[in-house]
User: Which sequence fits this backbone?
């Protein structure tokens, strides 16, 4: 139990900023330092979406995960964003992942991390979160928002600067 509590304390205190501008004295935020919304629920109607068309659009924009396969979607897409917070005028969706990508710190950085993001289609998940966050914020009176998606791989948390991937939506 003591080791688990110590690890959870490290998770709370590990910086989670997408980017801290160079030349600033600002410390990156941690879970412990933020006012945040945890487990933000969303639901979006799907009206005859086509996975083949979605794959084509995603590929044109550089999202190169495995093809979704030919499907049509109808119904309601429901989900939860792990954490949402505001930082430096942007809204951030933070998603924690517990995937085991390897035993070395390098497995949670660079191309290994990008490959895991593609293989698990987390880029698509992040796009869904960006739409859901924009809608969630609009209901709360925030008309314009450019979400930042941030993934934190918990198993890479002990390697300084590793285990984190982010994408800024325009």
Assistant:
């Amino acid at each position: 139990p003591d080791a688990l509590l110590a690890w959870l304390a490290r998770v709370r205190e590990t910086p989670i900023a997408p980017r801290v501008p160079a030349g600033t004295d600002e410390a990156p935020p941690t879970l412990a330092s933020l006012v945040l919304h945890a487990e933000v629920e969303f639901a979006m109607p799907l009206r005859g979406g086509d996975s083949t068309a979605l794959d084509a659009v995603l590929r044109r924009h550089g999202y190169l995960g495995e093809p979704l396969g030919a499907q049509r979607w109808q119904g309601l897409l429901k989900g939860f964003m792990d954490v949402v917070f505001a930082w430096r005028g942007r809204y951030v969706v933070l998603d924690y992942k517990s995937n085991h990508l390897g035993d070395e710190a390098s497995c949670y950085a660079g191309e290994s991390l990008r490959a895991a993001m593609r293989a698990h289609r987390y880029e698509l998940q992040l796009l869904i979160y960006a739409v859901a966050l924009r809608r969630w914020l609009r209901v709360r009176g925030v008309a314009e928002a450019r979400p930042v998606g941030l993934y934190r791989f918990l198993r890479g948390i002990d390697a300084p600067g590793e285990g984190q991937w982010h994408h800024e939506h325009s």
The chain has a mean pLDDT of 83. The first strand starts at residue 36 and ends at 50. The radius of gyration is 17 Å.
